[in-house]
Diguanylate cyclase (GGDEF) domain-containing protein
Amino acid sequence: MSDSRARDIRPSGVDNSGVQSGPTQESLTQAVSTWFDSGRRSHPRTIGWRGAAALAMGGSNQMIFIITALFAGQGDILGKGSAAVPLLIVGVILSWVAAPAWTELVLMWPNRVGGISAACAEAFRPYSPVLSTLTGTCYWWGWVPTCGVTAILSASAIQQWYLPRLPVEAGAAGIVLAFTILNLCGLKWVTRFAMPLALASGSLAFLSSIIPVWSGLVDWRQATTFTLTTPFPGWFGDVTSVMAGLYLIGFAAPAFEAAACHVGEMVDPDRNLPLAMLVSAAMAGVYFVILPVVWLGVLGSEQLGKDLALVLGPTFAPLLGSFGKAAAIWFVVLNMFHGTMQPLAGAARTLSQLSEDGLLPRFLAFRTQTDCPWAATLLTAGMAIVFLLIGDPIWLIAAANFTYLIGICMPNVAAWLLRRDLPDAGRPYRAPRCMIDLGLAAAAVWLLSAILGFQQFGLPTVLFGLALAYSGAALYAWRMIEDRLRAGLPAFARTLHTKLTGAMLFVLILDGFGYIFAVSSLSAGHPALIAALEDIFVIVALLTITVGLVLPGMITHTATDVRDAATRLTSGMLRDFSEAMSALGRGDLDAAHVAVNIVPVQNLSHDELGEMGESFNILQERIREAAIGLDEARDKMHTSRAELLARREQITYLGHYDVLTNLPNRAVFAMRLADVFENAKAKGAAFGLLTLDLDHFKEVNDVFGHTVADELLCAIAARLQETSRGAFITRMGSDEFALLVTSGRQPGASEAMANELLKSMAQDFEIQGNRIPVGVSIGVATYPRDAVDPETLQANATAALYRAKADGRRMACYFDPRMDHRARERYSLQLDLRAGIPNEELRVYYQPLATIEGEVFGFEALVRWQHPKYGLLAPETFISTAEQNGLIIEIGEWVLRQACREAALWANPLQISVNLSPVQFRNGDFPDFLQSVLSNTGLAPQRLELEITEGVLINDTSRALSILRRLKSLKVKVAMDDFGTGFSSLSSLQSFPFDKIKIDRSFVAGVDSNPQSAAIVRAVIALGNGLDIPVIAEGVETESEHDFLKREGCREVQGYLIGRPKPIASYSGLTQAAHVLNAANVH
């Protein structure tokens, strides 16, 4: 569609009380109105309700040729006997029920032509463009045989009574061509001809119904006695026969819906269309109720199965005498003229409208200067002539009626969907709600009649009907090929819609072969079973249409809407944002402006697709709010800069210490341990390392809550400091501490310190009136007795701690290699790891990275080890071992290569983030290796982000920065991981322009309840925003943490709340999609 569209839907008042988030009903209605098209070209409005009702007579008079088929049948197709009369009455009742919904639907687009199916096509556009096309073409196919069969009946009557030498086929073709020429002259001339024709045929219809009643010729007993002819005995035979009759009675609907074909050419359609529908409904009552009952009472069942032009004379004779036969002949001829004229005037406009909507080939939209769609009219006339030349047999009419039933069922479904999804949209005519529901029920009856009645006409008819129905998909494909070639694209696109539709067609073909095989295996003595198999085949065919066309269409429409909205954002507001931020950086505040241009994604499905559209609308709304807030940001630039400097000083201090206990943090401990080790090694001295773990501390959290637990931790830290008498002590984790004993003779000094700590911690703590006992387990290792390097010393102290906890807790355990089962396990694990790499036991898991609004933009690659004995192992189990024995380089290279290879295969070009260990980073040829990986895998370097910790910058900073600049020259991104856990973070940011800052999970955990954590996180976010460096927070696990980060302006998040690490196959919906999904769909 073009962007300059007429909007026919107008919001008439919205109740927002039930809206909790996202766009309101009013905004959705306004958004829908932007893509609901009301026709690309306007039409001259020349007809009123009389002209529309006159043209609709082409629907009422279909009773004349249907009643003969219902009474007598044709060939192997049985008639229904006198039960045809109540079937006709039921058919018109169904149409009466459906008419209010049709009127409401058509008047929602008063500038369109083509009737209910064209309006239905517009309403179905968000669900499936192919379904929209199929509905319109099915409607058209249903009218084409009517054009031919009515011309045959007219020509036959004229030949018998006036031109005996004129071949019927030639006469019928001449009638079709004559009315074609009339239509090409314009609707005004068609209406001028139709109105006297309708007056004459309607008058004769009234006479045919009134004269027999007035003269007493009606045998009312005969008129109200009905017998049903069935194909086989039993209740299923009765049902099959009734449904086959109702199936043909679908042709009662034209008596109503034909009046709606010209609403775009109608003067004051809001007033005239309901009047035309009302008059048409009254005429339908005459043709489908009064006339059949009177004729049955006068003529009987046998006569009504014959040529009506020959048998209707007695209904006129009592008044007209010898002119009764002539009246009967002209009654048939005039009514058949209507039936020939209407498809050329109405159904042809359906094709033209669909072509203008971009759903059918372009040539069908061509019009004459008189506004006649000449190409569609000629196509309609041509197909009608082809059908009449083969005699328009009843099986052909039945096949066309199958498509027509689809064409009249779908508008009721569309009206119901619009009432559900857009209850407040403007409606010039609003049908009672009960009539909308009853119209849907009528559609269900028509659908049921198609399932149970269509099969009676035989498999060839079923297959031909399905071919007519699916021709809409072929014509839509034709138009798509046209448009793609015009746009310079390949003719065919490998879309999900195409694949699913092809698969469903293949299923239908297989079902047809299966049906033929099943039926051929049955004898003719099982008609009920054969009928049941035929019904099943029709059901599968209808389900194929639903699954193969509707569902892929809904998916494609939503995806396209999101894509277009994303394109508008990236080429409009987001680009303006980038320029505005650059202007702010230059100090040009006047240029820092964003033009707001938001078109909400239309959202009508109540499932994951709807949630995706709603989430994108929320994203657009947030961007709009951000644009508005930009003005406020400009005013607060100076204040923010001052606050940034203050917070930078704060983070310099807090980055070295635990925010709760004010003890040094893990990074400072690592540096202090390295210094003590180097000093001891140089002097030949000894020192001890004590690792402490609080026993059952989790129970304190569970019983007393986090507030008491935090206060208890502070008290424990103070007691440990007091007892250790100045020894260096640090908090390593939630309930873990470490202590360095550098004075005194070892190992005695460490043993004495451990005993003092145990004695001190044996005393209960008094916290908020609660006496809380806290036990501690201690692991002790000393240098050089237990280790020759800091890493091993720390690992051995931890091993001793584990032994203390295993032996009963509340004790100290001293490292002993002979009883260190963990050391043996670590050695065994080292051997297994060395063999596991070539054995392809490593796995790459992926954890989503998302914006704060929930859009997944990439993944972090995380290594896992599928151990043959222990199963899937997390990286903390083996990475430290790999770093110690040098395997970390091989593992890191494998992870990087594998992640790049897999990411290059994704259809969706998401970011891939890979951790880089300090050992791997310091490997001199890493930049060359990275360049070869990018070249071999074909991954765009802009998609790759390397995460490094500040530990790589501690030693030989100048060399580290040189390597980082080489990496940046490859156009990859570099992020600082675990920001704030060490002491050199700020200087690192000053020395090297990192692309991203990642806040360590230790600060994020509990940030909503911990003031110190909140202060650090807030400062880091402000620092990142001030330096124009994106900030991502890892370890986000709760909604409250997410909400805090969102309030503070954090741009990106990662954690279990967004998605857990999984194999990439689990996220195929993201990697293979042509668009970005919301994080709500990740889990």
In short: The chain has five domains: 1-36, 48-451, 580-637, 666-819, 840-1081. The longest strand covers residues 856-867. Residues 1-39 have pLDDT under 50 and may be disordered. The domain at 666-819 is CATH 3.30.70.270 (Alpha-Beta Plaits).
